[in-house]
Design brief:
It is a single chain. This protein is mainly α and 678 residues long. Helices cover 67% and strands 2% of the residues. Strands 1-2-3 form a three-stranded antiparallel beta sheet. α10 runs antiparallel to α11 (239-259) and α19 (494-514) packs parallel to α21 (540-560). The longest helix has 21 residues, at 239-259.
Amino acid sequence: MAERETPGAGTPPDELGRTVAALRRAARADPGRYLPRLGYTLLRFGSLLATEPGRMAESVDVLGEAAEVYRRLSGEHLPGLGIALQRQALGLGALGRHQEGLGAAREAVEVWRGLAAEGVEGSRAELAGALLVLGGRLAETGRHHEALDRIHEAVETRRLLVDRADGTGRTELASALQELGVKLGEMGRQEEALVPLRASVAAYRETAGTAGGREVGDLGGHAVAAFATGRALLGLGRTDEARPYFAEAAALHTEITAREPAATAFLDHLFALHGHRLTYEGGIAAWTRTPDGTTSSDRPEDGPATSGGPEAPDRPDATPPARTGTTTWTEASARTETSAGDETAARTEASASTVPTASAEEGPATSGPAEPAAPGRGGPTSLGPAASAASDQGNSTTPGPAGPALFERIDRLNARGLALADSGRPGLAVEPLTEALALGRTAAVGTGAAGAVSLARTLHHLAFARAWSGRRTEALEAVDEAVHLCRRHLVDAPETVRPLLADATDSLGSRLAVLGRHRDAVAPATESAALFRQLAHADPAAYRDELARVLNNLSIRLCDADRHAEALAATEESLEIQRSLHREDPAAHLPGLVHALANLALRLARLDRHDEVTAPTAEAVRHLRHLDRIHPNNDVAALAESLAWLGGYLRRHGHRDTARDTERAAGELRRRAPEPGR
């Protein structure tokens, strides 16, 4: 193929298709030279086809080919793979091929997570976009809670990317907040949906005065957010509050019409789906059903043109809500040249240490400190200051059993259950915690954040007791419910809920890992680490040790998912914190330091860095000689197995003296280990 530039922007699809055909032939003859250009051109061609009527299936095939090319290239070309997969996932969703779309979206998220962990510029912003696409695909397959988790993660990632000085990133955050509000509304949680929807509208308003004006896509996103807010208010019977939002959406529709008339077709379709229409006067009104079954517009006397119409917001036969937001009004996929980004802000699912899952030949996957005996800040018997205040406020207006006495009884049952579990009797702990759960469900009715926090904490404690007594599936169900409760009320009582959510996501990762769902466990582990980073930044004395613990757990989850370079980075960060804590209080933080050192040795071994394994292993063994008391909840079995494996590893690589000391330490740990409770 003769050397020439790839066709530029505005190239017709057929011409770009001919270029692709030529590059395919050239790449077969000289892949090293032409594969990168083929991947890039396929990406452009597939994206262009997606905008052509009736060519979405062709677009999906071309983007799939682009993904295959980028898989062959890997390395510096991984951003291209992430973009191709993300765009393919969108196309598959549009074609109704939901399971295929879900697979592509999951892979896209994993690609961007890896790049974000490596600090590749702009990758965190792209990760947020991929998470939103994954949320859409999960919702299409009926996995609404998982979809909500991914959208929450996207929102938090984009929140951290907003530049407070110049406002860069506000539009992207507004778009993600809109997605979150729409998703909550689809799940029937209208009151909760109002919080992110109003925040989205406010963020869009802040961008209205930007130099050069806003893009049509941003205007459309703003219009969707305003319309969705109005609908949510109508659904709650708050018609007067809804009217200004409908007026705002109508005004934005007018502005878009003046600039790009064809772009309003989506808004018109969205309004119709939800039983509304644009009036001749430039407002939004609802359609109503007449006695003969046909539809007609509202009469003028039903309210002003900008009204949302009657209190019943939708027609009885209205089509279910469409997925709206980022994937519609912004370019759905990432750019090949990614924008600048900050440090990683991944959320997700972390966990305390679990039983190793790797074979003896591969090395144990885990070594970690115990899951805390009393999970959750503020202690097992306290709702914490913010929740207590909310409880007092709620109880002053809540009649019946959900008063202070009931909360005190729930706290006592939690304390009793945790004491039993902490003493190595988790089976006995389940009964009082189950009783506390039943009371907590009663207390949660009508008490707002206080009741929800109390219920979530009880579920979290019960999950630990069930896990330690071998009831793993039931443990997962309990902690999953706790996580979702925390998410719903994070905005209501952030100071109380954020630490509990951080603990609960850590536990969720553990529960998933124990059931063999290692890839699923990475997301909550990452989220927990991100939450504890926020907490430790605000209050280092209270949360540094927790951050070290969950980073250690995150390294385990990443290792179990075969993401060894990322696992090493998390372990090194955990060890750095553990060394600092140990210097300040050697006795209290010795177990954590030993676990972190053992994990560092394991991570290095996984990466075949043989000569570097000896030093952290020897240091761990040296510290173990000073460990007098082993707490029942300390995961000694995992540590002993890790050391035994490291002893064999060191022996095979010629470090016989260190191997002998390590194997002896493992044997001593096994003799001293408490009876297994998990």
